[in-house]
Design brief:
337 residues, mainly alpha, three-stranded antiparallel sheet, 3 strands, 5% strand, rod-shaped, disordered N terminus, disordered C terminus
């Protein structure tokens, strides 16, 4: 496996290769920025969480893939060990055969003689009994062996069979090695076939991509919500300012209405005309102020004494925003007095 690393952490690609010569694979979006500083940024935090999840998926898949590589290598090592044992056993058998050949020459036994042919058949029988003979004996061979066993073995045959019996252990070692090597080859082939079926790293890459895509969608949603919240906040601020402006306007209008009512009452008290009284009553109803008996004000206005009193208290009336009925009751003056 080859990881490309930069100063900020793992690069955004991971190249994977196996020991058995598989082609390198690149896993996208498997990024873990170990040096990333998140602070309080929720978007960066979510992106980092997604990166860690994606990397974990790829890392686990790679570990499993590496474990498969290790298993394959273990079978190959076992195969190599069995092969070495087989080579050692073959070398030992070859050495034994050389000793047997030297013995034959030393004893002066001809390779085509009956004694040599009987020895070969006896060795075959011995190998069969030792369990190192692949095929069995024929009926003709059994018949011949029965004849051979009727008479004692020659000295040469006895020594040669001792060497052959010694070689039987190496022959068993070769048979075990052959079985084991065949099994290890089958194991490696089976594991490779299963690896081709599963596509673990490809699936991990797809899973990592899905995690990053889901995180991106979530981040987009977070950003959209943030913009919406900002817009809502601005709208609330604008509404609050508008409400304040409306209240200020209402206060100004209320003050103006009170001033209008004040001037209308003043005019009605000074002029004492029906028109002035009606105007004051209209403004009063419009402002929803307290009832004021404007007819009484007219009676008071017709009196010279009231006019004089009004002149004297005009400054007080102008400074008041509202004329209360209690301020006027009891001040009725007879015009003729």
């Amino acid at each position: 496996m080859k990881l490309t690393v930069n100063a900020a952490g793992f690069h955004n690609s991971v190249q994977m290769g196996t020991k058995d010569g598989q082609s390198a694979r690149t896993v996208k979006n498997a990024v873990f920025g170990g040096a990333t500083k998140l602070g309080e940024d929720p978007v960066a935090k979510r992106r980092e969480e997604a990166r860690k999840q994606a990397w974990k998926v790829v890392e686990n898949a790679w570990k499993n893939d590496r474990s498969v590589d290790d298993t394959i290598q273990s079978h190959r090592d076992s195969y190599a060990e069995l092969e070495n044992r087989k080579k050692g056993a073959l070398a030992a058998i070859d050495e034994t055969n050389q000793q047997k050949e030297a013995l034959r020459e030393q004893c002066g036994v001809d390779a085509d003689s009956q004694e040599q042919q009987d020895l070969l058949l006896l060795e075959k029988e011995q190998d069969y009994k030792n369990g190192v003979l692949d095929e069995g004996l024929t009926d003709e061979e059994y018949d011949r062996l029965a004849e051979i066993h009727k008479k004692p073995l020659t000295g040469y045959q006895k020594q040669a069979m001792e060497l052959n019996n010694y070689a039987a252990g190496h022959k068993r070692e070769i048979r075990r090695a052959d079985y084991g090597m065949t099994a290890e080859k089958q194991n490696v082939s089976r594991i490779k076939l299963e690896r081709l079926k599963t596509h673990a790293m490809v699936d991990a890459q797809g899973a990592a991509d899905d995690i990053m895509d889901a995180a991106n969608d979530e981040i987009i949603g977070m950003l959209v919500q943030e913009v919406k919240d900002q817009q809502d906040e601005k709208m609330d601020e604008a509404k609050e300012k508008a409400d304040e402006a409306m209240k200020e306007k209402e206060k100004r209008e209320e003050k103006l209405d009170e001033m209008k009512l004040e001037r209308a009452i003043e005019r009605a008290m000074i002029e004492g005309t029906d028109e002035a009284v009606e105007e004051a009553e209209r403004i009063k109803r419009q402002n929803d102020s307290q009832d004021i008996q404007m007819t009484d004000m007219v009676d008071l206005a017709d009196s010279a004494d009231l006019k004089k009193s009004v002149d004297q208290n005009l400054g007080d009336i102008k400074s008041s925003m509202k004329v209360l009925e209690a301020d006027l009751k009891g001040i009725k003056v007879d015009e003729k007095a």
